[in-house]
Amino acid sequence: MTSDEIRESFLSFFEKRGHKRLPSASLVPASYDPSVLLTTAGMHPLKPYFQGLEAPPHNRLTSCQKCFRTPDIDVVGTTTRHLTFFEMLGNFSLGDYFKQGAAEFAWEMSLEGFGFDPEKIWVTVFEGDEALGLGLDEEAVDAWLKIGVPRERIVPCPRSENFWQAGETGPCGPCSELYYDRGLEWGTADDLPGGDNERFLEYWNLVFMQYNQDPVGTLTPLPNQNIDTGLGLNRMALIQQGVDSVFDTDQFIPLMELGRSLATNEIDERALRILADHTRGMTFLIADGVVPSNEDRGYVLRRLMRRAIAQGHRLGFQGEFLDKYVDVVQETMGAAYPELGRERDTILRWVRAEEQGFGRTLETGLSMLDDLLARGEVSGEDAFKLHDTFGFPIDLTTEIAGERDVPVDIAGFDELMEEQRLRSSAGAGSQERVGAKQEVIRQLSQEPTEFTGYEKLEERTTVAGVLEQGGRTFVKLAASPFYAQGGGQVSDAGVIVGGNAQAVVNEVLRAGEDQAIALDGVGRGIKAGETVVARVDRAARLATQANHTATHLLHAALRQTLGTHVRQAGSYVGPDKLRFDFTHGERVSPEDIKTVEDLVNGWILQNDPVRPVTTTLKEAQEMGAMALFGEKYGDVVRMVQIGEGDYSRELCGGTHVRSTAEIGVFKIVSEGSSASNVRRIEAVTGPEAVTLLRNHDGLIREAAAELRTSPEQVPAKVADLQKALKDANKKGAAGANGAVDIAALAGAAGEVEGVTVLTSAVAVGDAKALLDATDRVKNAIGDAAIVLGAVTDGKVALIASVAPSLVERGLKAGELVKVAAQVVGGGGGGRDTMAQAGGRDPEKLDDALAAARAHIEATLAG
After folding, report:
1. Structural domain range at position 447
2. Which residue, 336, 641, 763, 840, has most beta carbons within 10 Å?
3. Contact 304/111 with Cβ under 8 angstroms?
4. What is the pLDDT of residues 743-776, one digit of tens each?
5. How many structural domains compose the chain?
6. H or E element in which residue 507 lies
7. Considering the domain boundaries, does residue 90 fall inside one?
8. pLDDT tens digit sequence for 185-222
9. Dihedral over Cα of 841, 847, 851, 856: its sign
10. DSSP 3-state assignment of 410?
């Protein structure tokens, strides 16, 4: 069976047996589940159903879920089965069949669907765990015995093998796993399933989800007994296709062959496997909205890409090659996952940008690492410099060092990186908060609140529950007009009035489709069962709605102006402003900012209607609706369409204006970097924008008065003054070396291995003045290694000076200035004692000087 046949055979089998087929959710978990960075199992998108927070679309479900497991990144290539990205087939029961039914379905599918000999199937069960207060899972044992599995082929295993949980807290339960016996040629007669051997290959895990674990070690029965199973498609392909490794199966053969065709060095199977796995993973991650960065999911993606690039370098690949792998992944898997085709341009944009950028980093880092390895050890400080200054990943440093048996001080590196490397724990705090909110809502009432805030700003309703906890009062309403924070939009403000009591709404908590309201203070006289009036702050809601619709317009305008690679990467929508984070790799130019503003204001002037449309997810996607990664969508979705939908359709649960003209006016306040490859725009609308424009007008008038000119002539007057200042600086530089304080500059010199070293930026008018400053400081400090840099006319000038005695120790000015120039995107050279270079990236001057100093230190230490 091919991988496609395995997938379809499984899903069809369960569909025919009353299971609703679900499409794969994103690799980016929904916002309600911050327990993991990426989706690691088929049940992750279904957690609110298992926890009873949402009603499932059916009590029997089946899916093929895209999954990614970061702990296996370093293991890939060293075994025959480990992957980072993989597909997990699963069937799920929510309060319907339980252990007996799950076992019977798995047995039937194994025999009839996969054609297994029943004598070759073994099963494991949970042996119990004293810490959890659980004994042997007798119910599972009985289920298999009833099917006809001999008792000797039912093997009890410990918690580490047969108790499943997705994270430290959340739904969990014992499990039973099915193993395929590959025969004695793969092991010995003493081998057993669950042991460390190759004879028994696990292919299906049946999780009997009975409990919720929260806090850690404390089990509470779930509202329903549920079934969650996982069958690894790639592992099944290994069995069905009769090969020894997943890398010999149909999805991987084209990727492995591509690597062999590109290699000019000796073939390394491990390198080929890493390339095949990592390029699959990067392609799917980008298709689901992840972009390379130094944080969270973006860090995982960047690490994959850089490891792949390094392996290609090792195999002798010529030129850029990641795009070739993207094409093969799309060819082999695009039919099952059409997002690979839809997002192809975006995928190629990011892989090419990363490959071009890291290609330069790789050359510099490898050169420096070679010098460090020659010394016989890599200190934590050296590893940190490679990582922090040059972007050379620590795992590459340890990998290459390990191949040469050179130790790396990882403890020292971790200490230096502690504050910068909080990636894996990014969601811990928010997970705790989400869990607390869910618990509050669960305690208040089991009946979900009906949200009426799309149609009403005031609702006469009944208080379904009141809870005082932690110095706060929480209430739950039968029907509520208050919007609970979600999708970037803040929760509504307002009041609840009942009898003689009036309480101010402090926060609206969300859990799935349900909500609770936190009041300002304790004991505000609101009582369970009484009738109250819930009133939303009208002015704040209208301002928020204007900003939310403007956010959709901004998104559309950015995609039209910058390209379809632009995707929302976070937002804030409140009554005061809107903040929009989006994927883009460079600063948005003033011209593009103007274009975006003009587009948005043009759409506002058109007074286009803003219409929420309830439709199916499939229909919305076919109409081109934008979906946000990190959000969960069911079969029926709410799509916000502006105008005829020709420029903006987005899946969105927020509140919006009725027509674009209600926004009034749109003004961008700032544009800057939010994270690597993520930009941030802040903007205002309506009265806030008018106030801003009025303030700006006042400032221009004040400036005009100070300059003794008209407001229209302020730019010209400022330009004249700048020119005069620049001319004066040039004149001063020619006559007095740009006013460089040589004594202060000499005082900044330090000592490395007994050698005077000076690396510094100086303010001079041109390269000639920089050379003059170098000569004068050289006379002041004597034999030394000097690298000076300056920004002149928007470009970088660099000069390196090395005393002849230091040249004899291997330090050469020509090599030194090249190291610095690479960082600022330039080049240059010269003699061993004096060299000059230039670059085009002034913002990286400090990094260039740091690179030069690191090169000096490494050379002198060697």
Report:
1. 428-536
2. 641
3. no
4. 888 888 888 877 889 999 998 878 888 888 898 8
5. 5
6. strand 501-511
7. yes
8. 999 999 999 888 889 999 999 999 888 887 887 888 87
9. positive
10. helix
